[in-house]
Amino acid sequence: MAALTGKVAVVTGSTSGIGLGIARALGGAGTDLMLNGFGDAAAIDALRKQLASELKVKVGYDGADLSKPAEVRHLIEHAIGELGRVDILVNNAGIQHVAPVEEFPDERWDAVIAINLSANFHAIKAALPQMKQRGWGRIINIASAHGLVASTHKVAYVTAKHGVVGMTKVVALETAATAITCNAICPGWVLTPLVQKQIDDLARREKIPQAEAKRRLLAEKQPSGEFVTTEQIGALALFLCSDAAAQIRGAALSIDGGWTAQ
C-alpha cells in the first residue's frame, strides 16, 4: 500500500461508523484525509486532531450538507485547496427512513434520494476531471445489500442504493480506458454505534441478554449470524485502492454475511 502515501482521500459521512472505519484504513496507508459529516464541532475537531496525530497524515474537515449540490462541489474544491488534490473519493454518507410506500413522506423521499444518490453524482462529477488530468483515481461508492435486493418499508433507501450500483457501472465504463476505477461496496448489517444502540434497546425492552438481542436482529437477513465490522469494510476499500484491484471495475462487492446469497 506504499503507493497510497501522499494521496488524498475525501470520505463523506466519515465522522462515525463505516465512513470513519474507511478513513482510518486509508489514513493508515498514508493517505491524507478530508473528513465530512455532522456532529458536535468540538468532538469533530478532536477526532480530526486525533487521526492526524495517530496516523501521521494531514486531516481536514468540511461540514458540507450533502443534500445541497453546491456544498458537495465545495467539499471537493475545499479538499483540493487544502490538501492539493483528490485521488480517492469515497461516497459513504447516507440516511434512512422507514415507512410503507403509501405512507412514505414526500420530504423524506427527497432527502434520502438527495443524500444517498444525488450527492454521489455531484461529488464524482466534481472530482473526476482532476483525476483524469493526473491519470489516476479511485471512486468507491458505499451502496448496500439493499442495492442488490429489497426489503419492505425502505422504498427510498432501496431505490437510492440500486441507483448507486447503476451509477457505479456507468462511471466505470466511462473511465475504463484510464487508470481510474469506480466500484461499489455493498454491506449488510454493520456493527456501528447506531446499530449497537438498537441491540441495547432491544435487550432492555425485551429483558433479554445482549447476545440474544444481537441474534434476533441478525436472524432475519444475515446467515452468518455475525455483523460486518467497519474495519472489514475499511480493509476492502483499501484493497480497491491498490494496484491489485486495478482491473476491478464497475463491481458491486457484497460484504454481507451471506445476505444476498440467499
How would you characterize this protein structure?
The protein has 262 residues and is an alpha/beta fold. The protein is 48% helix and 13% strand. The protein is built from 8 helices and 7 strands; from the N terminus they run βαβαβαβαβαβαααβ. The chain has helices at residues 17-28, 41-55, 69-83, 106-134, 155-174, 193-206, 210-219, 230-240; strands at 8-11, 32-36, 59-62, 88-91, 137-142, 180-187, 252-255. It has a 7-stranded parallel β-sheet with strand order 3-2-1-4-5-6-7, sandwiched between helices. Helix 3 packs parallel to helix 4, helix 4 runs parallel beside helix 5 and helix 6 crosses helix 7. The model has no long low-confidence stretch (mean pLDDT 96).
Summarize the structure.
48% of the residues lie in helices and 13% in strands. It has eight helices and seven strands. It has helices spanning 17-28, 41-55, 69-83, 106-134, 155-174, 193-206, 210-219, 230-240, and strands at residues 8-11, 32-36, 59-62, 88-91, 137-142, 180-187, 252-255.
Shape descriptor reads: globular
Portion in strands: 5-15%
How would you classify the helix and strand content by structural class? alpha/beta
Q: Quick one: biggest sheet?
A: 7 strands, parallel
Oligomeric state:
single chain
Strand order of the largest sheet: 3-2-1-4-5-6-7
Uncertain residue ranges: none
Q: Overall mean pLDDT score?
A: 96
Total of helices: 8
Helix content: 40-55%
Question: What is the radius of gyration?
Answer: 18 Å
Rounded to the nearest angstrom, the distance between the terminal CA atoms is 34 Å
